Every structure is written in C-alpha cells, then in structure tokens.
Amino acid sequence: MKLYHGSIVTVRKPNLRQGRPNTDYGKGFYTTVDFDQAARWAHIRRNRAGEGRAVVSVYEVNDELLRDASFNIMQYNGATKEWLDFVVANRRFAPLHDYDIVLGPVANDNLYATISLYENGELSAEAAVVQLKTHVLFNQVSFHTDKALSQLRFVEAIVVDMQKMKKEELQLILVG
Questions:
Q1: How far is CA 45 from the centre of its chain?
Q2: The pTM is what?
Q3: Residue 6: in which H helix or E strand, if any?
Q4: Strands (E), 8-152
Q5: What is the Cα–Cα distance from 20 to 163, expressed in whole angstroms?
Q6: Which of 8, 69, 118, 129 could disulfide-pair with 52, CB 3.0 to 4.6 Å?
Q7: Is the CB of residue 26 less than 8 Å from the CB of residue 17?
Q8: Which H, E and C letters describe 154-173, residue by residue?
Q9: Residues 6+ away with beta carbon under 8 Å from 23
Q10: How distant is the alpha carbon of residue 166 from its chain centre?
C-alpha cells in the first residue's frame, strides 16, 4: 500500500519527536492514502511557512500491516461518536493512547466549527455526527510508535506545483 505525507521538506526518515501533540490522533507521523490530499496539505504548509516547496513524500508499507496482530491498531470508519470523542480528547492534550497506528477521518478546518460546538457542549454528539457526515471526510493513517514507523519504506519525494494543478492532472516534478 502507498502512503503519502505532505510537508515543505522531503521526509526520508519520519521522526515522532517532530509531531505536534494536540492533533486529531495525538502526537505522531501522519500520512494518507490519497496523493491529492497530501499535495493540498503540502501546499497549505508551504503557504503558512511563506517559503520553501510543497513536497509529498511517498512511502510503501506491506499490505498486511493493518491486519498484523503484533500492532495495536485503532480504525475509525467515518464520523462516529467514538471518533469524535477521541479527536476532542487528543486535541485537549489528553493522556497519550497506546496505539501503534490509528486510521480514520481527518478533522480538518471544514469540520472545526462542528467539533468546537460539540467540545463546548453547545451541540450533542448525535447532532455533531449528523453534521460531520454532511462533509467530505478525508482519511489519515497516523503512526505513533517507532515500531510502527519502522514499517514505512521511503520511495520518493515529489515537489507539487499547485499553480499548475488541474482538476484531473497534477504537474509533478521528481526530486532527485
């Protein structure tokens, strides 16, 4: 399976110490199975930094990884109350979980208002989940232990020129 990570640098060797603790699934290394999603994130990161390049690092993992019983894996299939509570707890710096890998939807900026209303008690979990399901939910696969990270094999890095991006085609330049 191919996984993609959007950034402003090539990430050949992911490092857990670089991650922020208050993210959807806690401190970890975040990837996606969707190249376009990683390219958009890389572009956002580049714009926030005000310089540099939008880079998508590409990795391969064994297709059996997500069924490997030696890893503690949590998978959320869409926006559910359990997923919502997990995201809110991680964003509030809750105690760290013990998962090696977590898979599920991204709680991106489009979903932030709904999650904030739920977090502040202004929206019930049921109402929040109904609202969240009206959005296109992107996916993420996050790695939270060195054991899990060791399964990623770096393949290549691609600089993405979002100015030349068309609906169905990305202008890609391989990074040597």
A1: 13
A2: 0.83
A3: strand 2-7
A4: 29-31, 55-60, 73-75, 101-105, 139-143
A5: 28
A6: 8
A7: no
A8: EEEEEEECHHHCCCCCCCEE
A9: 30, 90, 91, 142
A10: 23
Strand order in the sheet with 29-31: 29-31, 139-143, 101-105, 73-75
Do the bridges between strand 101-105 and strand 73-75 make them parallel or antiparallel, or are there none, so unpaired?
parallel
Task: Fill in the DSSP letter of residue 57.
Answer: E
Distance CA 16, CA 11 (A): 12
With tokens 């297709």, the residue in question is 63
Q: Report the C-alpha gap between 54 and 36 in whole angstroms.
A: 12
Tokens of 57: 């690092």
Query: For 153, phi and psi rounded to 5 degrees?
Result: -115, 115
